[in-house]
Amino acid sequence: MSEFLTTKQVQELLQVDRTTIYRMINDGRLTGVKVGQQWRFARTEIQTILEGESTSGKANQPDVTPEILPTHCVQVIQDVFAEVAEVGAITTHLNGDPITQSSNCTLFCQLIRATDSGNLACKASWQKLAATPEINADKFFTCHAGLQYSRAGIRVSEHISSILVAGQYYTQAPDPDEEAQRIHTLARKHGISPDALLEASAALPVLDPRLQQKIGRWLLRVAQTFGDIGRERAELMGRLQKIAEMSKFDLMA
Q1: How far apart are CA 25 and CA 98, in angstroms?
Q2: Any idea where the domains of the chain sit in the sequence?
Q3: Which end of the chain is more exposed for a tag (fewer CB within 10 A), N or C?
Q4: Residues 197, 215, 72, CA angle at the centre, nearest 5°?
Q5: What is the pLDDT of residues 140-165, one digit of tens each?
Q6: Residue 223's CB: how many other CB atoms inside 10 A?
Q7: 178-182 long-range contacts, Cβ below 8 Å, gap at least 24?
């Protein structure tokens, strides 16, 4: 028996279409080798997916949320979004716990999150964002550090179960005296050098009106893409679970 499978054979085993196979290759869920114009896949990898991911896979995959959102794939998309939009970005659970690493993080926020109290304050801000009933992506909020944020809900199943946050900017230039006073207060609260935090604040971006108008639409589209990815993965794992259950019956027969 060949140690490599064709695309068609993998489709039949995983019960997915050809487009899904290519998506799995692109986002790293599946590894293939191209021979000429044809893809080949190691039989052992497919067996691992069928035998392991459908049963004990969740325990071995810390990068998967309870909604089966593949973090390795989400992180790449989030990084690109943050760079194009010129903002910081992060994806979190509704309780404020991060799912991804922060993308395009400013030095100002790095200094705050490097402290235990600052990190907890950021998580509390994300939790407050998630708990706000109105989930419109074009609405701006203010975090504990005085910076502006927007967010969009990620819907993998029927309900919103996580959020994509874009922030670490101002929507208008702050008053220099007020900003200096606020930053000194933040520095004392979190045990950060006031001079270092004040210097880092000078590099905080002021989101121009053009980006302010677009950020909500972009944020919503990316969040919808994350939901699509999560649902596709959930459907695949559901099929794998059924295959695993059928395989058990076949072995017992």
Answers
A1: 26
A2: 1-53, 71-229
A3: N
A4: 80
A5: 999 999 999 999 999 887 788 899 99
A6: 25
A7: 179/146, 182/146
CA atoms 131, 134, 140, 142: torsion sign: negative
Spelled out in words, what is the top-level CATH class assigned to the domain 1-53?
A: alpha beta
Class of the CATH-defined domain 71-229: alpha beta
Q: pLDDT digits over 69-106, tens only? A: 788 889 999 999 999 999 999 999 988 999 999 999 99
Which among 41-45, 122-126, 129-133, 244-248 has the top mean pLDDT? Answer: 122-126
Average pLDDT over residues 238-242: 71
* Residue 70 DSSP SS3: strand
3-state SS class at 121: helix
DSSP 164-209: EEEEEEBSSPPPHHHHHHHHHHHHHHHT--HHHHHHHHTT--B--H
d(CA 141, CA 170): 10
Which single residue is written with the structure tokens 């194009």? Answer: 84
Alpha helices in the chain (DSSP H): 7-14, 18-26, 43-48, 71-85, 107-113, 116-131, 176-190, 194-201, 209-252
In the sheet with 160-169, reading across from the earlier edge strand, the strands are 88-93, 160-169, 148-155, 141-142
What are the tokens at 152?
Answer: 């969009």
More confident residue, 157 or 131: 131
Which neighbouring-strand residues pair with 153? 163
